[in-house]
User: Fold these one by one.
Assistant:
Number 1:
Amino acid sequence: MSAENTGTASRALRLIGGSVATLAGLALLAFLLVAGVVVWVFGVALPRHQHAIDDESLAVARGFADRSQQRLVSAVADGELTDAEVTAVVGTMWTDERSADRWGVTTRYPAGSKDVCFRFDIALPLGPGARVTHTELPDCPLIGPHPGAS
């Protein structure tokens, strides 16, 4: 083999080696770019989107509680409130506490990634003008299907 052929072969090998190194570098850069996008989507974009969904779901649950309060006011106007009427207003998942001057109904509504609970306080005696208020609870107590709900 002549010196000229050896130089040409050496130059060809360097060119091929440089091309392979360039391709490997580009592949690594593409991988890092895709990995960066995936990290951004799962670390920033999706949590931000989930937060927005949770905020909207909480607003919907609060609106539902407002409407439930008005429906309870209508239900107690006749001087009577049955378990079936409460279930028709707040759903089957509720608990209650009764005392001489009030009836408390606690219920849970879905609100995105977590639930939100409201307590409805119904002043006794029942009848026209009976006062019904509701309060959003900071934590949800354990609430299962009410025994009177069917």
Number 2:
Amino acid sequence: MTDHAADDDILRRSQESIDEAKAAAAEVDLPDQEDLIDEDLPAADGGAPADGPAPAA
């Protein structure tokens, strides 16, 4: 297999993986924001970080 053919195969398999991930993500059913409020579940609005500030660079 030439380098070009190997690259084409890698790109094809990569695209297939991306397509499979997109299809799986499309099947996920997430609740609407209104459903979270109606069920008295907390919404993630401006929550404080749980582990403190980020370390200085």
